[in-house]
Amino acid sequence: xxxxxxxxxxxxxxxDLKRWRTRSFLAGGAGAALCFLGFLSSPFQFYxxxxxxxxxxxxxxxxxxxxxxxxxLTGGAWGxxxxxxxxxxxxxxxxxxxxxxxILIGIxxxxxxxxxxxxxxxxxxxxxxxxxxxxxxxxxAASTLPAGSCFPGG
Length: 154
Hints:
By secondary structure, the protein is mostly helical. 71% of the residues lie in helices and 0% in strands. α1 (11-41) crosses α2 (43-74). The protein is flat. Mean pLDDT is 88; it is low at 150-154.
């Protein structure tokens, strides 16, 4: 005998969720506008700040994925409470991959080794040019994505 589950929500909760969604959308729009103003005032600082924030978001998402994999690997009941939040955080990996685009665009502002004239003038950078170049940087960045993270349900 199976029991039917009721996933309907009350009208009050639906109204609360709509209010929170609207507030979150407005906060996100204000944040995007401030980021744009920051980009216009100082692109170098914008890209550095964005890179720092991106690393934080990647750390949360990939850290949750690692925690989740460890919990599934050990199979214990110790991670049941945090399993669903970790799954939700790990599900943001496709968005995190999309958030890499501003870093891709800002490579010349972020990394001095992306300029050929700077590399030619510095003996140390000339020795490291095999590792520190834009195509290899992009290949390393693409290889750090967990398998299937760019595809929903992957």
